[in-house]
Amino acid sequence: MDAPKALIVDNEKVIVELLAGILEKEGYQVDKAYGGLEALKKLKKKQFQIVFLDLVMPRIGGDRICRFIKQTPKFADTKVVIVSAVALEAQQKIASMKADACIAKAAFPKLKENVIKALSLINDRDQTPGSEMILGQEGVYPRTVVQELLFAQRHFEAILNSMSEAVIELDTKHVITYANPPAQELLGKKEWQVIGRNFTEGFSPDKAPEIKAALDELLNTTKSTTKELLLRYVDSVYSFSCTNVIRDEKLIGTTVVVNDLTEKIMLEEERIMRERLTGVVEMAGAAAHELNQPLAVISGHTQLLLKDSKKYDEKFNRRIRVIFDQVERLGRLTEQFTSIVSYKTKDFGKNIKIIDIDKSTRSGNRKGLKGIWE
After folding, report:
1. Which residues of 23-62 are buried (b: 16+ CB within 10 A; e: fewer)?
2. 369, part of any domain
3. Looking at the structure, do residues 280 and 193 belong to the same domain, yes or no?
4. At residue 251, what are phi and psi to the nearest 5 degrees?
5. What are phi and psi of 343, to 5 degrees?
6. 373 has pLDDT over 50
7. Does the pLDDT value for residue 19 go beyond 90?
8. Are residues 28 and 120 in the same domain?
């Protein structure tokens, strides 16, 4: 029977080596990861029976790795043990992670004792510990300063999660280390499906080079720099605000804020169209006003001819009546042109729309408050 596989994840190499020694003596085949990103790479390639996980690590913390394991179907039987120096201060977070056990970091003899105890409890199906269990808390007390730092971290995460903009954090190789809920919705993926993936590789071949070029440009400077990018895709438009993240004068990654500008641009285009229509309508009204006088003259002379209809034959009188009817029609149209108050359209054919004069005039909009106030 093959030895069970264990993964140890901690950015402190000493802890990794200590835990590896304990687990190897207990018959486990051990793999090591010195950070969250490295752990993700190993998890995507191998199956592990148990993962020992530090909580506080740079870039990708243990809480995200734990969620990744618990939400990924292929790790349904993988157990997670949190081994952390802030176990007592982060009890609330650890409980929400639904880890299988938690061990407070302590001196080696005590740490070894608690690791063996956790393994025993996890392997005993009748005594699997819940997420509230913390081994090794005897004689250890919560530290106020650590609690305050963890509270500040939770507050910061709450702000990011409540933003309407999509916020995505990348490392120096453009690998996603964080995506807030709006970003997950925008990408159409859950958190466990996006962290650890290369951001640029998710785009179509015609868009990926443009995104990658913008991100690569930010990696070539150690000064805080923001690069704006506009991306059009089918009928949608997105703005990308990419900022490189500098810590201790060293580049550690990029923050990308994405906004969906589609609706905003559509409203702006509609506003421009309305301004153009306003000019056209005003011109039509002015033209109609100028036409009224010659139409009145033609109408008057036509009526005089009709009064003397007895002097002419029937064919001539019929033509005079046709002229009179058409002049009257033109008069009604010019009156409507000067009464346009809105922009109702109708189909003209071949995907062309024109103003529906009958529905755009004051007479066509007299509905009072019906449908507005009841």
Report:
1. beebebebbbbebbbebbebbeeeebbbbbbbbbbebbbb
2. no
3. no
4. -75, 125
5. -125, 75
6. no
7. yes
8. yes
